Amino acid sequence: MKRVLLVLIMGSMLAGCMSFSDRSMRPVRNSIIQQMPEIRLKKEMAVALGGGMFDFLDIITLNEADLSEVDHLQVAVYQVYPQGDDANFTDEIFQESLLAKDASLTWERIIRVREDGEHVWVFVGMNLDEQALEAVSVFVVESNELVLINMDGDLNELLEYAFEPARGHPGAYKSG
Fold first, then answer.
1. Which residue range(s) make up the domain with 161?
2. Residue 175 falls within a domain, yes or no?
3. Residue 171 within any structural domain of the chain
4. Cα–Cα 20 to 30 A to 23, which of 50, 117, 175, 176?
5. Radius of gyration of the chain measured on its C-alpha atoms
6. Contact at 8 Å (CB) between 24 and 98?
7. What is the pTM of this model?
8. What gap in Å lies between CA 72 and CA 12, rounded to an integer?
9. pLDDT per residue as tens digits for the range 79-129
10. What's the total number of domains in the chain?
11. Is 7 a domain residue?
């Protein structure tokens, strides 16, 4: 009986931490459409995970990765119409769309990759008043698809965790 109750509690907790809606990414999508009226974006798939999911992952991994600092992770995939046309997505379009999502952050592109058939942009959202990294957003355009990924939370903590193994070992890692 205790196991059944535990499974029911955990299942309802996790169900409340996950959504298959693109609601959280709509300001970004709407801004892109407004800036590029020649295209349409049709949702293919969306998943949004809330902070409770990451708290749960911390529990089952014994706080190994300290994921509880992540507040949200959203992924949305859109089909771009008209197909066959190379829509001219730019840094400015994505930066403006991120401001529509969260104007309190300063958004900067840190990575842009342009390969045949695939383009990737990575932006970071910084709270300059608190000198904090609060969001990372990735845009991928490939084969008439636009993939939007956004993660927000106290990302400074995650960076500290990621770089912890290198602490005290400057220059110890060499490539080649």
1. 15-165
2. no
3. no
4. 117
5. 19
6. no
7. 0.76
8. 18
9. 999 876 667 899 999 999 999 999 999 999 999 999 988 999 999 999 999
10. 1
11. no
